[in-house]
Amino acid sequence: MSLRINDTAPDFTAETTQGPIRFHEWIGDSYAVLFSHPKDFTPVCTTELGAVATLEDQFTKRGVKVLGLSVDKVDDHSKWAQDIKDVSGADVTFPIIGDPELKIAKLYDMLAAEEGDSCEGRTPANNAPVRTVFVIGPDKKIKLTLAYPMTTGRNFDEILRVLDSIQLTAKHPVATPANWQKGNDVIITGAVSNDDAAVKFPGYKTVKPYLRTTQQPQ
Predict the structure, then answer these.
(1) Strand ordering across the sheet containing 64-70
(2) Is 45 one of the annotated active-site residues of the chain?
(3) Exactly one of 32, 34, 45, 104 is catalytic; which is it?
């Protein structure tokens, strides 16, 4: 199945480094970031998991849960965790899913159905598409997808920036412009009339009839 923004994220049960979970139940009323890896003990992924470990408090303060996935067994993940700590200096305290039968990789359309049903004998190149980030809301809808090549490490500061935008625009009738950072001016959406904008966003600026900006609401 092909997954798009605003689709319901498929639910699943899985074994993780912190025990079994049912995904939707685990998300609860939080936002969630699910990010996947083609195989354990790969260099770029090691740095990425370390980066998330060092930023975990930033996700937590935003009410966001983080969940990794790698196409290997949970026991291998636990061994990998020491390498991640050696490289990053941070403990991996968030769960990492074991997907040795490729079920979740296929469920999330990262691998094709005909790719088999075992991680055994597979190389990172075989699993190259399993490098996707999904941001999922408390409503269990997909808010963002990002897919990266194996040779390009992910920018988790950008994912935090996107989360700030998603959470802000879920609460207020605004959008965020290109390269927006938290605290910068925002765009008033077309759903707000000029009369309503004058009340909700006094002093807003009209750049073009269809582009109105205002200070970021708190």
Answers:
(1) 19-22, 13-16, 96-98, 64-70, 31-37, 132-136, 142-147
(2) yes
(3) 45
